[in-house]
Amino acid sequence: MASISLKKLNKTFGALTVVHDIDLEIADKEFIILVGPSGCGKSTTLRMIAGLEEISGGELIIGDDLMNDVPSKDRDIAMVFQNYALYPHMTVYKNMAFGLELRKAPKDEIDRKVQEAAKILDITHLLNRKPKALSGGQRQRVALGRAMVRNPEVFLLDEPLSNLDAKLRGTMRAEISKLHKRLNATFIYVTHDQVEAMTMADRIVVMKDGHIQQMDTPQNLYDRPINMFVAGFIGAPQ
Ligand code: ADP
Ligand code: MG
């Protein structure tokens, strides 16, 4: 069970508070999208959930467990970044298998998982290539595949499509929505693309200056924004 609770979550860097008392209850298997201007604390929030950034105050609870001090490697979470972060010297197959190899999974199990993920993502024909021989969209599929083979309870995606052209973004939006339905995982997805937020999210969380301004379903946010900031972020084309 991967419900996620953030209770008065805070992050400070020195004297600077970049995430202020965030309260957020995310249901198991929900698709949450975080939006807000650059620098408002979206990535920092994801990184605290992933264990890549220490929590300065408050509580992070996943399922029934307090996670504040659990090391990143012991969290059942996979994160996909904007810049893919693939290993350049490894083939696509190896990029996807590597995390499982580190965990000493049996070879046949690794192979089964890599082949299965590659099939779903339509990259089977690319398994022997190196990342530099792939297009942006293909690289992003590999990054998703690398997260999928771990079969995590929680997927964190930080602007995963922002380096892709508009047409490919459309295709990948649909792919990621399909993936969410198929994977039985909770998704938290950061974007500044309004179409992504409105079409993919169960609920959208609008952040500004480290605070949550409003959170609701796309329809309710669109119909009843609480202030001009939210209205501007949700309603207007960007
Ligand atoms: P977003 O993802 O919404 O664009 P971030 O979470 O990356 O925003 O950053 C939020 C704020 O925290 C920004 O003001 C950023 O400069 C600051 N910040 C992020 N990481 C660090 C760090 N390691 N040290 C100091 N300040 C940081
Ligand atoms: Mg960011």
UniProtKB/TrEMBL annotation:
Keywords recorded for this protein, A-Z: ATP-binding, Cell inner membrane, Cell membrane, Membrane, Nucleotide-binding, Transport
Family: Belongs to the ABC transporter superfamily.
Protein name (record): ABC transporter ATP-binding protein
Membrane topology field: Peripheral membrane protein
One example GO MF annotation: ATP binding
Protein's cellular compartments: Cell inner membrane
Residue ranges of domain ABC transporter in the record: 4-234
Full protein segment contained here: 1 to 238 of 369
Transmembrane segments: none
